[in-house]
Design brief:
It is a single chain. The protein contains three helices and three strands. The chain has one domain (2-21, 51-142): GMP Synthetase, Chain A, domain 3, CATH 3.30.300. By secondary structure, the chain is an alpha+beta fold. The protein has a three-stranded mixed β-sheet. Strand 1 and strand 2 (107-114) form a beta hairpin. The longest helix has 41 residues, at 50-90.
Length: 144
């Protein structure tokens, strides 16, 4: 799973770099196309200042890096959530359907209703034993 995520992020980064490099080296010219036949285009300077193009490219590269980082974090959180839910689904004591699992960073929050204190303890223990989890917030309620 991690190899797939890494491959996706590398491909995304390569695409962003390719667009940036193409704009940089081509020295793109900006011209306005006439809206109607016979209309002349409005003021065309012929070219863009290279330093402003570089600055804009750098800004876009930064934004792409931030977005890629956020995507990576979201994918990692979803993977942790899926691991915890899978462990619970495979456990005979825990009713995984009744437990909501949400992940923020390395913190997993368990909420919902369980039928016993033993089920609650088991669900919390399964979450704590999952790779990538450093903290578990227990918001489970025991039915009475």
């Amino acid at each position: 799973m991690r190899h797939l995520i890494r491959a996706f992020l590398v491909a995304l980064l390569l695409i962003v770099v390719a667009f940036f490099a193409f704009g940089w080296w081509s020295g793109a010219k900006v011209q306005r196309v006439a809206d109607r036949p016979g209309e002349t285009p409005a003021a065309t300077s012929g070219s863009i200042d290279r330093s402003s193009a570089r600055e804009r490219g750098a800004q876009l590269g930064e934004k792409a890096a931030v977005a890629a980082s956020q995507v990576t974090e979201s994918i990692a959180e979803a993977a942790v959530t899926a691991k915890v839910k899978a462990k619970m689904a495979l456990d005979d004591l825990v009713k995984a359907r009744a437990i909501d699992v949400s992940t923020s960073g390395n913190t997993v929050t368990l909420s919902g209703t369980v039928s016993s204190a033993a089920e609650r303890e088991r669900a919390v223990r399964l979450a704590r034993e999952t790779d990538g989890v450093t903290r578990v917030v227990d918001e489970l309620r025991v039915e009475r």
